[in-house]
Design brief:
There is one protein chain. The chain contains five helices and two strands; from the N terminus they run H-E-E-H-H-H-H. A two-stranded antiparallel sheet has the order 1-2. It is 69% helix and 4% strand. Helix 2 runs antiparallel to helix 4. The longest helix has 52 residues. By secondary structure, it is mainly alpha-helical.
């Protein structure tokens, strides 16, 4: 029994030959399936570098990151066309550039099998979620303030109307 066969039996993984679309020509380990059919993450083995193991899911999603980056940038450009939007247009542009940079770093990390680029990509993705989360919190606070002001306005209007109906000459 060869070392590779023992490794496959021990980890439950099956080596899959690389395809033409893979960035590296090293064999890729297919994750084993659980009894429910869900993929289990493979253990990092000699067949796959740690960087390639960690960047594979993001490498396959880099096209979506680029698309969302372009959408955010275009959103910022269109916001800049209005008077109010020109003040805030830099936020979606920043988010878009952050996603585009993360996608580029993921591609380079996969192609060069480089952990520094993987770290930079993950850092950019973390920055994207921090910025977006802060913007969502700010938006929810403004929505609550506007909702409270609208509720007070409606209550004030109802109170004024009820006083006006009582004071109407008959």
């Amino acid at each position: 029994m060869t070392d590779e066969t023992r490794l496959q039996e021990h980890t439950g993984t099956v080596p899959v030959p690389p395809t033409a679309t893979e960035p590296n020509s090293t064999p890729i380990v297919e994750p084993p399936r659980s009894s429910q059919g869900a993929a289990q993450p493979p253990s990092a083995s000699a067949q796959m570098s740690v960087v390639h193991y960690l960047d594979k899911p993001l490498y396959h999603a880099k096209g979506w990151m680029q698309l969302m980056g372009i959408v955010f940038i275009l959103n910022g450009v269109f916001m800049a066309l209005s008077l109010v939007g020109i003040i805030l247009c830099w936020l979606p542009i920043w988010l878009g550039l952050t996603l585009m940079s993360a996608a580029k770093n993921i591609r380079v990390a996969a192609e060069l099998d480089n952990q520094e680029y993987l770290y930079l990509a993950l850092d950019k993705i973390g920055l994207f979620f921090k910025i977006h989360g802060i913007l969502i919190i700010i938006g929810l606070v403004f929505a609550a303030i506007i909702g409270a002001a609208a509720a007070l306005g409606v209550l004030g209007s109802v109170a004024m109307l009820s006083q006006g109906v009582q004071n109407m000459p008959q």
